[in-house]
Amino acid sequence: MFERLLDPLVSAQLLAAAMLAILFLQSGLDKVFDFKGNLAWLNEHFGKSPLRGQVFPMLVVVTITECAAGGLAAAGAVQVAVSESASLALGAAQLAGLNIVMLFFGQRVAKDYAGAAALVPYFLLCVGAIVLFGGPWG
Question: What is the pLDDT of residues 25-42, one digit of tens each?
């Protein structure tokens, strides 16, 4: 089994799944444990945007998708390590990509262009992971 983990494709899949798990679990759990603080910050952030009345439901959706993507990525990392499948990691990367698109939309509507630009590397990670997990080798 350990020899398989040294295979370049398997190690790339494992590392990408681990990165997604860390990124989205940390972000999602931060929102869970400090929901009130995140809500207050986001209410201010979106205060002058057309989304100002939608902050609470948006935060709930983003929190759920982040936690789900992170948990699925963690399970996907285990799946990649112990089997020849990356199906869970693929689902995680797709959900994570959707989450980043939602965040990007919000940042652009709020005219936080620097915040939107900061999301691009995470989006590229998600798209790369989708290709890595979903190709004929995945």
Answer: 999 999 999 999 999 999
